[in-house]
Design brief:
Length: 661
């Protein structure tokens, strides 16, 4: 992209008066020294303004979208108050060295920072709710240990050259590092002796990685460090192409199939071509924002913008989303339009910018926060329209510890409580019925056991690169084998009383087994199993399944459009239907009907007709089959009233959800 500037001598100095880019952007600059203001207008007629004081400091700024920012100063050069759009103010205090010592947000919450010596490296960061992060540093200002608000402690040790040679986490787990003469990590050894090795080229870029099992990944780079060829542990290679700006323009996978990206001079993707030659076309405005996206199946999405934000998105199915913004720049109202119908979703925020209320046609959600800004609860209240659908009020409350970790959730169906270990990982969950689900872990952090009460319900084993190679549930133990790339290639399940050791699954004791083969593109091309026999799979060049063949000769075909949507297999003409709105009308003996919002409301065909009811938030609330309501999803209160609400001759099954979603 080329940018051209025009200069003039104004006020005794050379100043830019015009800027033009090769992509159509045009900005004009105006200066008024008497009023100490300057102005920039863009190609769309939007203007931004700046007001200065006698020292050249910015007093106020009005952005292209009309939002205004004000800056207040005292003896410091940097601002001490910042007035944001939406009548919000941030206050800043500095220490004697001009470093930010305290920040006060629009809600009055503070963040205080102390620094090491005369540096800008922090030794403590404290919030007004009592949470604090702390560092201890050496003479080089490197951290010796770091502590989080929940008490988790990490220690670091350094070699003579100043490189980290050892780190110890809150559980005492040690990781060691070895470095070369340039300070680059050449070896990383974790608990259990698992070691990863790194090699570098003369420019300092990683060119080889060897994992704990000896699998090697090699990277060939250009002079700027961009990967040109990556050779995987199985010997297959993928290739990458780049333009002069360092943006990827092509990718050739191990199968030899390629993708291409054609860009404008800004670097925006104009055309994306997949392995089958399908093209996605994008158009941008003079500021580089997308205004039209045309899919490979003819689907078109159109976007409109104001000076800074998206105003609307019109999708291929005719549904339009319109956005209205508050003075703070946050979305205030989202309006969905489809034909003559429309529905709105509104949002309210507090002075700190946190969402406090969200209202749809069927529900109103209220979000409550604690003194530390953490979410304390969500209340759902149905609107009159929502009550007609059987939606009732609901509430969920959250508890946090001093470190801000979630320790309890309270809802209509009881309470969930969480316990953490010293490293901050969940180790126990108390269920509403009083049972406790415990998770025991190895030193690496991987799950070793899952226990419910006093009963062990699952156990896991891992290999040197932490892949799950075996798991046991009761008397059933399942083993998994992996390829050099980490893809699962076989499964063996055995039963017996001795499940305490992983062992290996042998043919004599194997009761269930399954295996899989992969293509160079990492797609499954064959599966085999004792009960199902063998299956073979064919794909197109982009990876969409075309055909599956069983060992009995049964064949199933699949057809896809250019956008990757599954289509009905074409008949004698072999010309598949095209659905640029992404709404499938017919497939495999079924017909599908949609409402104006694109939601499936009816499926009919060779078996019973299924109808679905939706709420205004895009969730299924009822399913009907042949005139009967076979499933209904009300809230907790409506479920408790189910026996007196269900009508005669209309069997109804209720499913109750704990939370608002």
């Amino acid at each position: 992209m080329a940018t051209r500037y025009e200069w003039q001598t104004i006020g005794g100095a050379a100043r830019v008066v015009r800027r033009v880019t090769s992509e159509g952007a045009r900005d004009r600059f105006a200066y008024d020294f008497d009023s100490q203001t300057s102005e920039v207008s863009d190609v769309f007629g939007n203007a931004a303004h700046w007001q200065y004081d006698e020292q050249g400091r910015v007093l106020s700024h009005t952005d292209f979208d009309g939002r205004r920012y004000r800056f207040g100063y005292d003896a410091a050069v940097a601002p001490v108050t910042l007035q944001l759009p939406g009548e919000r103010e941030v206050r800043i205090e500095y220490d004697a060295l001009g470093r930010v010592a305290c920040e006060t947000d629009p809600q009055g919450a503070t963040r205080s920072t102390q620094y090491a010596f005369a540096s800008r490296e922090p030794v403590s960061v404290a919030l007004s709710d009592g949470r604090a992060w702390m560092w201890a540093r050496n003479d080089r200002l490197q951290p010796l240990h770091y502590q989080t608000p929940s008490g988790e402690f990490t220690r670091f040790e350094y070699g003579e050259a100043g490189d980290v040679v050892r780190s110890t986490d809150a559980l005492g787990t040690v990781t060691t590092f070895a470095h070369n003469a340039w300070g680059q990590v050449t070896r990383r050894t974790e608990v259990g002796g698992r070691t990863t090795r790194y090699e570098y080229d003369v420019n300092g870029y990683v060119v080889s990685v060897t994992d704990a099992l000896g699998a090697v990944t090699r990277i060939a780079r250009d002079g700027l460090g961009r990967p040109l060829t990556i050779t995987r542990p199985d010997g297959q290679a993928e290739r990458h192409g780049w333009n002069a700006a360092g943006q990827r323009t092509s990718f050739v996978g191990p199968s030899g199939r390629s993708r291409h990206w054609y860009r404008d001079r800004r670097g925006n993707v104009l055309r994306a071509v997949d392995e089958e030659g399908h093209v996605i076309v994008r158009r941008y405005d003079a500021h580089g924002r997308p205004v039209r996206i045309e899919g490979a199946n003819g689907a078109v999405q159109v976007l409109r913008w104001n000076a800074s934000s998206c105003l609307s998105i019109s999708d291929a199915d005719g549904v339009q989303r319109c956005f209205d913004y508050a003075a703070s720049g946050q979305v205030r109202c989202l309006t969905w339009k489809a034909g003559e119908q429309q529905r709105c979703e509104t949002f309210d925020y507090d002075r700190a910018g946190r969402l406090t209320q969200r209202e749809t046609a069927h529900n109103r959600y209220i979000y409550c926060y604690g003194p530390g800004g953490l979410l304390d609860g969500v209340i759902r209240e149905p609107t009159p329209e929502g009550e007609l659908l059987g939606i009732g009020a609901d509430e969920i409350r959250f508890e946090h510890d001093a470190g801000g970790r979630l320790i309890a959730e309270h809802g209509a169906n009881g309470t969930l409580r969480y316990t953490y270990d010293a490293a901050g990982r969940v180790v126990a969950t108390q269920l509403p019925q009083g049972q406790e689900l415990r998770t025991r872990r190895f030193e690496t952090g991987d799950i070793a056991f899952i226990e419910l009460g006093e009963r062990q319900i699952a156990r896991f084993w891992y290999d040197a690169v932490r892949r799950p190679v075996a798991r046991a549930q009761g008397r059933l133990r399942t083993h998994t084998g992996f390829s050099p790339l980490g893809l699962p290639v076989w499964w063996r399940s055995v039963t017996g009383r001795d499940v305490a050791t992983p062992g290996s699954a042998t043919e004599s004791v194997t009761e269930l087994w399954r295996e899989a083969d992969y293509s160079p593109a990492d797609l499954i091309v064959r599966t085999g199993g004792e009960s199902d026999g063998q299956m073979w799979y064919d794909y197109d060049r982009r990876g969409c399944l075309l055909r599956s063949v069983s060992e009995n000769g049964d064949i199933e075909y699949f057809t896809w459009d250019a956008a990757g949507n599954l289509l009905d297999t074409p008949g004698g003409s072999w010309f598949p239907a095209v659905y640029p709105d992404h709404r499938l009308r017919e497939c495999r003996g079924h017909r599908y009907d949609y409402d104006v919002w694109g939601q499936l409301v009816r499926r009919s065909g060779r078996d019973h007709t299924l109808s679905l009811d939706w709420d205004a938030e895009g969730r299924v609330i009822a399913a009907h089959r042949n005139g009967y309501t076979c499933a209904h999803w009300p809230t907790a209160r409506a479920a408790r009233d189910a026996p007196k609400n269900s009508g005669r001759g209309c069997p109804r099954r209720y499913a109750v959800f704990d939370k608002a979603d």
